[in-house]
Design a protein that fits this description.
Blueprint: H1 2-5, H2 22-27, E1 34-39, H3 45-54, E2 60-66
Length: 71
């Protein structure tokens, strides 16, 4: 409904984390693209690989590493 109501706008949704929440996977068919955000201090390589697998049929428009803690 928002796409048809506001065709000249970009609508951004901030969804819950992909792995612990099934809500995000259920919402993906409504999105034109996904910005994949990983928390640099806690996201493991295995988490990224599993997320990539879950997003394999989704348009990923970019990736972002957030909250990196260098000790």
């Amino acid at each position: 409904e928002l796409k048809s109501r506001y065709p000249d706008r970009i609508i951004i949704y901030d969804a819950p984390p992909l792995l612990p929440s099934s809500d995000t996977l259920g919402f993906l068919p409504n999105a034109d693209g996904v910005l994949f955000v990983a928390r640099g201090s806690t996201t493991t390589k295995q988490d990224i690989e599993k997320s990539a697998s879950l997003l394999r049929n989704t348009t990923v428009i970019g990736t972002l590493m957030n909250a990196y803690d260098a000790d």
